[in-house]
Write a structure and sequence with these properties.
Number of helices of chain B: 12
Radius of gyration of chain A: 19 Å
Radius of gyration of chain B: 20 Å
Strand content of chain B: 25-35%
Order of helices and strands of chain B: HHHHEEHEEEEHHHHHEEHEEEEH
Oligomer: heterodimer
Distance between the termini of chain A: 34 Å
Largest sheet of chain A: 7 strands, mixed
CATH class of the largest domain in chain A: Alpha Beta
Order of helices and strands of chain A: HHEEHEEEEHHEHHEEHEEEEH
Largest sheet of chain B: 6 strands, mixed
CATH architecture of the largest domain in chain A: Roll
Structural class of chain B: alpha+beta
Distance between the termini of chain B: 54 Å
Number of domains of chain A: 2
Number of strands of chain A: 13
Helix content of chain A: 25-40%
Number of strands of chain B: 12
Largest interface: A-B, 38 and 41 residues
Chain lengths: ~290, ~350
Amino acid sequence: MLHTIHQLLGKKDTKTLSRALLHSSRWLLGERLHYGPIQQRGLMANWLDITTRYETVELCAKVQSGDVEAGVFCLSSASTNTYFIAQCEHRNGAIKQLLQWVDSASLAAHYNTKEASGYDNSMSLPFWPEPDPLQLSEFDPQLHLQTTHAGICDVIEGDASDARKGMLSDWWQIWQGFDVAGIESVYETIDHFSVNSAVVKESASPSIVSWLAQLEGKLHRRYSQLEQVVTDENSALVRWRIDADIKSENGLIRVRIPIASMLTFAQNKIEREYWVIDALAFEKRFAIPLPF
Amino acid sequence: MSETSIAKTVYWQPLHDMLDPARSKTQTLAGFDEEFVDLADYILRITHRIWEQKNIGACYDYYADYCPVHTLGSYADSVDVVVQNTLKTIAAFPDRSLIGEDVIYRKEASEVYYSSHRITSIMTNKGQSEFGPATGKTGRVTTIADCMCKDNKIFYEWLMRDNSFLIAQLGISLDDAAAYQAKFPASSTFTQWITEEYARTLANDASRWEALPEQDKQWGDFAKSWADQIFNKRMFNKLSDFYKPNASVQWPGGRQATGNAAIGGMLIKWLASCPDANMVVDHICVTHYDDNRVNIALRWGLAGHYNATQSKYAQFNQQPHYILGASHFEIEDGVIAKEFTVFDEVAALANLMRKLPQEMGA
């Protein structure tokens, strides 16, 4: 059902998507769940406004397993690429759940350059949703030996060989377990690695090692939790989150960072990897910017 | 159509199918109108008629004249009051939608059907409400309505709503909303009910509900063990016996946790506000979604003595504290994959302000 999103953005087809949504469908954007035609039409209208500011919409990669389909899209203009990831739970033409994670910082920066002169608040979008209320609780982030922590094999959905599970487990060990040495083998053949539309590992860009070091260094008492792993022969979507303390002018603040990572594979190696984090939702929720 | 496929149909059905179900009648529903094909259909359609079609008077068709309705903040037992309260709520939130997320139900003795209906509402606060003056803001709220039904009518109801999540979106503080509610004196019937429920729960005396069918007894044991091990014995190393490693849990006020570490942290923090709490499970329903998934609804009570985790509430320390709650579990591979727990934190704080419940004999 990703084609309904593609048609909405590419052909301004609101009808097909509206027909696919149920009375009980939910649509996540900006870390807020939207229900019902009033809210969902508002989202469609905003997306149509957004797409007028880009020249093309491309589906870069997708994954399908059972009722779940997900893809990473690239909105492109002459000066900007903005990535977002969409995930649908669907059956018989009906969409029960549509989840979107958008590089909202890139979107806002591009959107605002098209605004009238004098509008210089580049990290805001007038229509970006207020995130749902969230109460975080403190917990022990240590990986004690006798406690249970989700691993790839606990959460993976879809057909995956043992080799694929092993490779994804190595990947998770890097990002959850701070396994810096593992980066070389997992990422040795990668063509593309982007975090919020910024390509990592290009010349003059921070390396993957630097990116991991930033995560570990700026997110104190970091705990990474897998939510869902959807995989097929060619790709995987990993939904995960980091709960951590970050330093602010008012001391340490407990935060949560939802992350959607889409990985594509070639010869059981990661070929391309896209991370999307909604910076505007984070800033609205915690009243501080992302620390990286 | 089996009960299993009905549960799946409810999950996926479009509105037009919900209002005119194509599935054939599978429950006898003795005493109910012929149009209803099963209890889920009855609950979903009457809810739509009353709330979304605004046929408020249909309450007279679908509620018994005498129908006790319990919430953590009030008590009513007349259909006239049900109609008046529905009218007032729609006046305060005129676009309120009631989206059925799940109906978990079972048939009990004497042609009684018990239903636990989880609802998501989107609603814009355009009039004076139970939380104070109109804010003009739109919010979302989860409600679990447990109803006992017979002869086409609801004759007993427990209503749990996540009001602290709603008011956070409306821009109202928990303190202000609770203080506003506490200004209204509690009726003697409500005071008696909450005081008795508190004493019964503290004494670990669960309501005597009818035994589950043989195939579902394991889920009744599972739910009671969840309450006993986690809440009563505080054995948080047992969480993995009850939850998948990536289980997601929604609790009131925007508490949202995934995985055992975060779930444990959330529960420990919440229980610290009532560290001698005792929980009893007062009712359980089970429906089968597919071969590997069952949905469980439990209604529970929790009683103990309040212990402020924020200094501004220290004045309530050691007061009797009671929570009327409900949880829906989606069970996969024998453990919880998703949990939705609902209770009213606004009413709970208002009750502390009103010094309710009272210790028996006080």
